[in-house]
Amino acid sequence: MQHDDQVAIAIDALDIGDPLDGFGLVAIEAAPAGHKIAIAPIKAGEEVRRMGLVIGRARMDILPGSWVHEHNLGYEPSHAALEIGARLRNTRFVDADRVPVFQGYRRSNGKVGTRNYIGVIASVNCSSLVSKKIAEHFSMPGALEPYPGVDGVVPLTHKSGCSVSNGSTSMDMLRRTIGGYMRHPNFAGILLVGLGCEDNQISALLKDQHFVPGPMLRTISIQDAGGTRAAISAGVADVEEMLVEAAKAEREPIPASELVVGLQCGGSDGMSGLTANPALGAAVDRLVACGGTAILAETPEIHGAENLLLERAVSHEVGERLIALIDWWQDYTRREPQGFDGNASPGNREGGLTTILEKSLGAVAKGGTTNLVDVIHYAEPAEKKGLIFMDSPGFDPISATGQVASGANLIMFTTGRGSCFGCRPTPSVKLASNTPMFDRMREDMDFNCGTLLDGEESLEEMGERIFQLMLESASGKATRSEDLGYGDDEFAPWHINAWL
Question: SS3 of 364, please?
Answer without folding.
Answer: helix
